[in-house]
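Final report, Chapter 2: Outcomes

The project's central promise was a pipeline that accepts a single protein chain and returns its three-dimensional structure in a standardized token representation, suitable for archiving and comparison. That pipeline is now operational. To close this chapter, we reproduce one record exactly as it appears in the project archive, with the input sequence first and the structure output second.
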Amino acid sequence: MMKRIVLLIISLIVSVNLFPQAQNRVAKDVLKRHQPKYSLFYDNHTMPSCPDVGANFDAEAFTDRIKRCGVDQLTFHARCNLGMAYYDTKTGIRHPSLKYDLFGRLADACKRKEIALIAYFNGGISSAEGVQHREWTTLYFDGRENREPRFTPYVRTMCYNTPYRDHLIAMIEEVAHNYPVSGFFIDCLAGYPCVCPICVKEMKERGIDFNNKGEVIKFSEFSALRLAKDIAKAAKAINPGFQLYFNGIPFEQQADFGTWLECEDLPTAGWGYEYLPVLSHYMRTLGDKPVMNMNGRFYDWGDFGGLRPEAAIKSELLYGLANGMRPNIGGHFHPRGDLENAVLDRIEKIYKELQTMEPWFDNAKNLTEIAIVYPKSDRNIRNQAGSDGQLIAAVRMLSELKQQFDVVTEFSDWSRYKVLVIPDDITFTEEITRRVKEHIAAGKAVISSGSSGLNAEKTKFALEKEWGIKFIKECDYDPAYFTVGKNYNQGLPDMPLSLYSSGTDVEPLPGTSVEAWLIKPYYNRGWDGEYAFYYNPPDKVTDKPALTINGKVAHFSHRIFSGYYDQAAVELRTVFSNVLNKFLADPVIRYEGLPSFSRVFVSEQPGRKMVHLLSYVPELRGSKTQIIEEPVELHNVKISLRNDGNALRKVYLAPERKSLPFKINDGYINVTIPVSNGYSLVVFE
């Protein structure tokens, strides 16, 4: 018995000596998980040859400076994608020119100043460790370990099934035990295909064809998800209150173990200004987790010398805040640790302005009544899904019309929406068929287009009775034109109009009304051996439907959203709007005097509703870069908010609380905003 007691005492002493900081931290920090408000995210990928890492870094000055900005959360690299660690690691490779525990100093300063510190690890890339352990890297199908082109951070990716996985988890545990961090951001957990002996062995055991590239990629995605779950298990065993996010793992797949969601969106670096609208309307349907909206102060990742205009950074963060997303500005940390005051001055100015409106942003929920049904994978959506851009176009159309909507998948609850928009190419599974049928049975509306609504075999409409049409075949008109009847032609020119897309031939069933008709061209596009049939004028109106209405189901025969994506033909938006207006006669918001580029969002908190009005226009400059340099000032904007029977006390502009006169007519609160310079926040209490 005495021997056992002595061994127990020794083990306790050893554990205390091994992790002196952890004892105090775990006892105090297993508290309510931090809810980020204003964050910064630093890239710190530093070449091993960099001679003076951390030489000028002053942790006190840096944290004082970001605290002045109102920052309450910081993501900073514990280990970067070059495989360099910035803390005193016994497991990994500390940067050879770093003379002290940089991450440790930063962590200590953040803790004292109540800044939540998120430790960054790159999960899928670790170049220096891959150089030391070539057996840890992925092996591509042609036998290469290095990717082509070589000039990319992804030249060497890591295999999640080699001993690298245990090494990565050990480093995360090392930081979790030794530093007062609030959580971990694990980057680049993508499904990099690998046919190394370890992966091939497991694929054989699972009956997976390792010669099939698609199957190998699926296995690699499975391996990434398995690693993410193991990291979460290891981290939460140390502190159940840790925040965790796994970049590269689909949002839905990390629902059970991730604690926040991150939308990485840098419009000038390939994302463009269509990405945030799609993701913001989608991510808010994924539950109550915090959603971070990460843009960047620079023009591209890896760009140390870029500082985008204030209006660009601010407009993107305002867009996110109007949609329930918290600001997170990305930046590059200079390896020496130089304090970049010009960058922080800009961030401080933006954050201080946004923080004046925090009472109206905090825990606000968007009020929506339309859903764009897009039951495809998270990766489809994040990659700007749809080969013809139908999702982007549907989001843009509804945004230009100032409608309040979400993007939903099969993971979402559809029950609260009045209208489902099903764009272009959504074939119906049994589950989608069941849910749409329930929606229609509840007396609600559907607008579909193209081949949407067809069964999985694409032979007939899954809900043929409800759609009121029979599918015949794909339409062979190229190009196709249409004309609209008097019920839905408001605002349309009296002439044959182009559809700019492919479509279907459908036949109306008894009781279905045809409201628009296809016009065939004289001849289709093509080459007959002598001539290019490039000029294809419209010929005669046919009896083929272009738009049918059956009860509360409208169907466009052609892929109008793809057509809008390709040519931005306003007439396609107009005819869609005419149909939507019949189905949704009393939308949440009405307006006068707003240009198409402006955006309007309605959010609510207990006892009040907020209308967010944004007016910024991205301009394409040069061959590829869109930029916002200044806001657009609007005058005498009239908005009408549906009252929904609430007792209204006052309407005012936030944050200054300047009262606005209002009138209530026909269930709407009518307000005029005299001047709006880029953004206005109108509060209805």
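Archive annotation: The two ends are 71 Å apart (CA to CA).
This record, like all others produced under the grant, will remain available to the consortium after the project formally closes.
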